[in-house]
Amino acid sequence: MSTSQLTRVLSIQSHVVSGYVGNRAATFPLQLSGHEVDVINTVQFSNHTGYNSFRGERFPATHILDLFAGLEANGLDSGYTHLLTGYMGNSENVLAVEEIAKRLLARTPDLFF
Fold it and tell me: Which domain of life does the protein's organism represent (predicted)?
């Protein structure tokens, strides 16, 4: 893929309020490099889990699939060239992302992972 072609990334990973991991770390550099980035957060935590404590929520797989269904319903899910994944928060989210990947691959067989 040449650099002149638009790249669209669907990034499915964690979000933290303080710090730079997951989607919080990936989104800006990708945008700065000229990529279009859509984000689905698997968790929202106060900070990285490596600290003594953290607060927040692990989102259920139904939340992730529901957000993706909203993209599909409005035709916003077409044109992805890359799928980026990271921290899932729970094992059910891995299966949700697998389902999303299958849907994307059905439409875009040369999608990059």
Answer: Eukaryota
**Cα separation of 1 and 9, whole Å?**
14
- Spell out, as residue ranges, where the chain has pLDDT lower than 70: 1-4, 113
pLDDT of res. 1: 45
User: Tokens in use for 82?
Assistant: 């890359």
Which residue stretches of 38-87 are H helix? 61-73
Spatial neighbors of 14 by CB under 8 A, at least 6 apart, are 21, 22, 23, 24, 41, 42, 43, 44, 45, 86, 87, 89
Whole-model pTM: value is 0.91
Contact at 8 Å (CB) between 77 and 106? no
